[in-house]
């Protein structure tokens, strides 16, 4: 079986199927065996693991996953890649290929059926335009996930790890850190892909928290506050929340809650920690629910 991490083998399979890259799917295939090995190593995949791969492409990383895991389900949106995957993965009997959009699949049902409700490991080389919806979809669906090891745009990886007060800190940082511990395991230059992307990439591992780090009365309400506070970064937190139509609190309620937390009325959302957003959310939620 030809290893697709070798550029020559990738070119040969693309020519064999006369494959054309689809810009709308953000396709960039990995052609560096060291990076592929690093991803599988970072994901800590063993023969006991069930792996969900998103966007397998021509099966480059899938080959590595099949070698290491008990079973792999690869979900691919591009119908033109399905016959290629059946060809490149024909040597493996522990692979299931699904032609579908990952955002439309009932992942709870899929993982329950394939892995009897045990935690799964997710591995992906994600199209950059849809990274955030996929990651948030995985977390918000509350699928039992052990870890997500993904290739993303370098600046997105930096945002996931960012802390309060930095320019990269935002709603994505807080959402990821609420659900998981992010750790960049490799930086990947454009020449490791075919075709070459215009930006640098990074492999980041998100290890799911066994217990979420903060307790909130309403996750949904807290994330509404977080999104509203970063939608207008330059405004104070009070004005940002007061201007947001989805926030049901008055300016006075917001100011009073901040006072109880010992925060000034002119504080900006970008300086608040996850713990502070949780405390603010709980104060406001409890004040209006009482």
- How are the strands of the biggest sheet laid out side by side? 4-3-2-5-6-9-7
| SSE ordering | HEHEHEHEHEHEHHEEEHHHH
Q: Rg from C-alpha positions?
A: 21 Å
**Envelope shape:** elongated
Q: What is the number of helical segments per DSSP (H or I, 4+ residues)?
A: 12
Q: Tell me about the biggest sheet? A: 7 strands, mixed
Give the low-pLDDT segments. none
Ends apart, CA distance between termini? 65 Å
Number of strands: 9
As a percent range, the share of helical residues equals 40-55%
Write a structural description.
41% of the residues lie in helices and 18% in strands. With 290 residues, the protein is an alpha/beta fold. It folds into 2 domains: 7-208, Rossmann fold, CATH 3.40.50.150; 219-289, rRNA adenine dimethylase, C-terminal domain (Helicase, Ruva Protein, domain 3). It has a 7-stranded mixed sheet, sandwiched between helices. A two-stranded antiparallel ribbon has the order 1-8. Helix 6 runs parallel beside helix 8 and helix 11 packs across helix 12 (274-289). The longest helix is centred in the C-terminal third of the chain and has 16 residues, at 274-289. It starts with 6 loop residues before the first helix and ends with a helix. The model has no long low-confidence stretch (mean pLDDT 92).
